[in-house]
Amino acid sequence: MDEALPDPVAKTVLPPAPGAERYRSLDFADTAATLPAGQGYDLLAAPECAVRWLIAHHLTTPDVQLYEVCAQRMRTLRGHVRALFAARVDGTTPPEESLRAVNEALVSVPIAPLLAWDGAQGLRRMQAHPTDQAVNHALATLAADAADLLTGPDADLLAACGSAPCDRFLLRTHGRRHWCSTRCGDRARAARAYARRSGAAS
């Protein structure tokens, strides 16, 4: 996915955070990131980027065309998912508007594969929906995935990257690791080493 991004974005995109392979909503929340020195990126900044992300995550097909209003809806839901993740990490009450937005996405369309008849294959389950409903289905799927993460056994593993200014989320894989990537971990260790040297020199 990163290789298809136009420069210089491709050079700054961090690899998926731990847990993103299990929860697409985690990777969805991390499609925007703040990096050091005022850098950052937004993988949903434009319709062509947003549809590329959906295709890479098997949430739509290449024949679907996205418009800016659809990309904006994705960015809006991402903000609400991030707010719910942040509340879970901080142990605070989640924003009512974010709960409402995710619930609205959940019930907007049926996300379960429907039973359909195929003359060649007989009865089978398929994600049959009109092309113009593709974004609704993608958002409903992501909302359901976020709800599963927030209420399931992995909820206690949800963490925010501990290497400022990075603001991505991850699932802790071992110990107290709170870094979303090797790059952030190296930066955090370097900052601690610098702090120790500065303290010793004073």
Total strands: the figure is 6
Q: Determine the number of helices (DSSP H or I, runs of at least 4 residues).
A: 7
CATH topology: Jann2411-like fold
User: Which strand order do you get reading across the main beta sheet?
Assistant: 1-2
The helix/strand class is: mainly alpha
Please describe the biggest sheet, giving its number of strands, its sense, and whether it closes into a barrel: 2 strands, antiparallel
Class in CATH?
Mainly Alpha
CATH superfamily assignment? Jann2411-like domain
Cα-based radius of gyration, to the nearest Å? 19 Å
State the shape: globular
Mean pLDDT: 85
**Span between N and C termini?**
47 Å
Along the chain, the helix and strand elements come as HHEEHHHEEHEEH
Total separate domains: 1
CATH architecture: Orthogonal Bundle
Q: Level of helix content? A: 40-55%
Tell me the β content: 5-15%
Low-confidence stretches: 1-9
Topology record:
Layout: H1 9-12, H2 24-29, E1 32-34, E2 40-42, H3 47-56, H4 68-90, H5 96-108, E3 114-118, E4 122-126, H6 134-151, E5 158-160, E6 169-171, H7 182-201
Antiparallel strand pairs: 1-2, 3-4, 5-6
Written description of the protein model:
The protein is built from seven helices and six strands, in the order H-H-E-E-H-H-H-E-E-H-E-E-H. The protein is mainly alpha-helical and 202 residues long. The chain has a single domain (2-107, 135-201), classed as Jann2411-like fold, CATH 1.10.3300. Strands 1-2 form a two-stranded antiparallel ribbon. Helix 4 (68-90) packs across helix 5 (96-108), helix 4 (68-90) runs parallel beside helix 6 (134-151) and helix 5 crosses helix 6. The radius of gyration is 19 Å and the shape is globular. The protein starts with 8 loop residues before the first helix and ends with a helix. Residues 1-9 have low confidence and may be disordered.
